[in-house]
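Q: I have 419 residues here and want to know how they pack in 3D. Can you give me a structure?
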Amino acid sequence: MTTMLTLKKAVDAKTEAAMLTTGQKNQALNAMADALEEQTAIILEANEQDMQAAKGIISEVMLDRLRLTGERIASMAKGLRDVAALPDPVGNVLETFTRADGLKISKVSVPLGVVAIIYESRPNVTSDAAALCLKSGNSCVLRAGKEAHKSALAITEAMRSGLARCGLNENLINLVEDTSRHSAEALMTAVGYVDLLIPRGGAGLINACVQNARVPCIQTGTGICHIYVDKSARFDMAEKIIVNAKCSRPSVCNAMEVCLVHEDIAEEFLPLLYRALVEDRKEHPVILKLGERAREILGDRFNCVDAGKDDFDTEFLDYVMAVRVVPNIQEAIKHISEHSTGHSDCIVTEDEADAELFVRMVDSAAVYVNASTRFTDGGEFGLGCEMGISTQKLHARGPMGLRELTTYKYVVRGAGNIR
């Protein structure tokens, strides 16, 4: 099936999507979750084919993004059920007022229409995106990367069978067959078909969409996330937060990439950090790319290299981290302002005044005090799951859930009023 035919099917289905009752949506989401669990073996077989084809082509940490397990499929099904349990975002009266002449004006939430999502090697995005689009009254067009296409197809077919089980149009959820750049370009330029395009992946994909899209596009995902260790920080807390933020899953956009350390504590703290990230991690020691002062402190140790000119502007998505010593919190904030992608940034401190200054001055979608950046996630923020993390400011910012997949219209009720 051509990409254009897929788009036409989605457009034809969007009216039905908008007309679904809350009960119909929830029934469908639960049926889709059941179908995922029932077809776990089929999905895992497809994923294994993707994994075998990708070995030697993508990195080990990116293979982890691609890998599905029974537990991960169960988590995907839970995400569908969690979305079913959330309030319906459609038809809510956001504001209302009545004019002196009796004219009543209401602002009411409505679906966007057709939402297209281009993503790369994370098969779970398939179910997350479909769930959020369905609950928000939209039809969706999914375009997975070639590395994940077989997995995405198996997941999509399972969910479509759940829709059919409920007597609903299977074309509420659509997967583009073509995984070449031509299909991505077709979605970017599908004026009159796509109401919102969401790229979810690396900087290359996001930049291509932002630069070339002729349809409305949300900039998501790229995360050069910082953790600044203030002079008053508790070392045990800072170490625990950094290890989690860097190492729990380094291939995701909310993993930290840069550590900034106040110079007053650097000589004592950096050796402790080196132990936690390198010496204590025999299987996956972190490569530390050191700024000048950090290099002076740590010297010529294993897995330490000099930071290059681009290392503080790189989303490594791997067991790699850039480290810089800064003279004060103002310099830390300045560095983040110049190098952050506006995703998630954190301060570890016991000084409330410094915490408030950091929160006020760091202009990112999520700003943390004494907590790992890994919490920037739709599920963790109570959204059920997420469409992506928006790093822009218009329409949506941060984890995108149901509300961000709606727009609004004004409903005006009169009794023969004229102007």
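Q: Anything worth noting?
A: Residues 3-19 form the longest helix (17 residues). The longest strand covers residues 104-111.
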